[in-house]
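Sample entry was shown:

___
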Amino acid sequence: MATETQLPLVVHERDAQNDVAQLLRREGGGKVRGVIHCFTGNDEAAKAYLDLGFYLSFTGIITFKNAQPLRDVVRQVPLERMFVETDSPYLAPVPHRGKRNEPAYVRLVAETIAKVKGLALEEVARVTTNNVRELFRI
């Protein structure tokens, strides 16, 4: 359907990166665009999705103390291929972890990306906003 309509996919997968990448490769054949919502995979999964032309969207998980491997992925992913999200009402970033997540907390995710990548928050906000506009043609 995404191929026929030329609309982007929003993909949510959990612990199925290889299967999903294989399915997208087989069914989409490079013609399907989209975003991997709430990305939590490793470098290999990130590369597979990026090679398929997908964006990766990061949540408050990247602020968690035990999420260094995911922050390492953030460091490697080009900013031009990232989205920033909250996944509200779940996965509230530190210092709100364990509480109800709110859309306003997206700034904390963007701040973490900025810190990890050594960029200004304004740059992260500008580029990730443009990424959303590009994918969804808005």
Summary: Strands lie at 9-11, 34-36, 55-58, 82-84. The chain has a mean pLDDT of 95. The first helix runs from residue 2 to 5.
